[in-house]
Amino acid sequence: QVQLVESGGGLVQPGGSLTLSCAASRNINSKFLMGWYRQAPGKQRELVASVTGDGTTNYGDSMKGRFTISRGSAKNTLYLQMNSLKLEDTADYYCNARHRDLALNFWGQGTQVTVSS
């Protein structure tokens, strides 16, 4: 079992930046795909960004060029740097760890990001 705890959410003005962090209760090996998802009120959860164990990244279309996902040097952390935030980025952001081979899929409780002037 892995517990994931997100932090770093908050209120930011349009055009601003935030960095989200995800701390895992134990080291996450390279066989896990790590990612950030978000869910806005009344909408489905969507992929924000993901990163494989070898560092390959993938981004949702509206996040490309603005968001950067990274795994920390400590193998139990994940980050999401968000720049040029827009009103439509307002959502709850969730950290995810999914094993590429085994039926292991872990979610954090989420952190709220509100973009508002």
List the helices and strands and how they pair.
Layout: E1 4-7, E2 10-12, E3 18-24, E4 32-39, E5 46-51, E6 57-59, E7 67-71, E8 77-82, E9 91-99, E10 105-107, E11 111-115
Parallel strand pairs: 2-11
Antiparallel strand pairs: 1-3, 3-8, 4-5, 4-9, 5-6, 7-8, 9-10, 9-11
Sum up the structure in keywords:
single chain, 117 residues, mainly beta, 7-stranded mixed β-sheet, 4-stranded antiparallel β-sheet, 11 strands
Description:
This protein is mostly beta strands and 117 residues long. Helix content is 0%, strand content 50%. It contains no helices and 11 strands. It has strands at residues 4-7, 10-12, 18-24, 32-39, 46-51, 57-59, 67-71, 77-82, 91-99, 105-107, 111-115. The strands form 2 sheets. Strands 2, 4, 5, 6, 9, 10 and 11 form a 7-stranded mixed β-sheet that branches. A 4-stranded antiparallel β-sheet has the order 1-3-8-7, with no helix packed on it. A hairpin with a 5-residue loop joins strand 9 and strand 10. The protein is globular, with a radius of gyration of 13 Å. The model has no long low-confidence stretch (mean pLDDT 95).
Quick summary:
This protein is mostly beta strands. It has strands spanning 4-7, 10-12, 18-24, 32-39, 46-51, 57-59, 67-71, 77-82, 91-99, 105-107, 111-115. It contains no helices and eleven strands.
Mean residue pLDDT: 95
By helix and strand content, what is the structural category? mainly beta
Uncertain stretches: none
Any idea what the radius of gyration is?
Answer: 13 Å
Sheet of most strands: 7 strands, mixed
Q: SSE order in H/E notation?
A: EEEEEEEEEEE
**Shape summary:** globular
The amount of helix comes to under 10%
Number of strands: 11
Oligomer: single chain
Q: What count of helical segments does DSSP give?
A: 0
Alpha carbon gap, first and last residue: 40 Å
Percent of residues in beta strands? over 45%
